[in-house]
Design goal:
Layout lengths: L5 E2 L5 H5 L5 E6 L4 H16 L5 E6 L5 H5 L7 E6 L2 E7 L4 H9 L3
Parallel strand pairs: 1-3, 2-3
Antiparallel strand pairs: 2-4, 4-5
Length: 107
């Protein structure tokens, strides 16, 4: 299966938010068990919402600036941005339907 989620980093983060589509960002790390559980769900959402929303993943071990800016202490943390503003967030593993409901509210 093709990876559909965009790789977000400290450098391209603001560019990702600049578009007119909602942006779901999954803050994760390689060593995080729950992150590995929700990873495939995030990839599915990236495919399901192609053209409607941007789905991105940011490795918190590789990027310090953005996670610090948003005060991320636990991962996975999934944040939804609209027009560059944080509009919703989920901490921990949740069912795909929860993320779909949250995304649908902003699409």
């Amino acid at each position: 299966m093709a990876k559909a989620a965009v790789e977000a980093n400290d450098d391209n983060f603001n560019d990702l938010l600049a578009g007119d589509k909602p942006v779901l960002v999954d803050f994760w790390a390689e060593w995080c068990g729950p992150c590995k559980m929700i990873g495939p769900v995030v990839e599915e959402l990236a495919q399901d919402y192609q053209g409607k929303a941007v789905v991105a993943k940011m490795d918190v071990d590789m990027n310090a600036q953005v996670p610090a800016q948003f005060g991320i202490r636990s991962i996975p943390t999934l944040m939804i941005f609209k027009n560059g503003q944080l509009v919703d967030k989920v901490v921990g593993v949740v069912p795909k339907s929860v993320l779909e409901d949250k995304l649908n509210a902003h699409v």
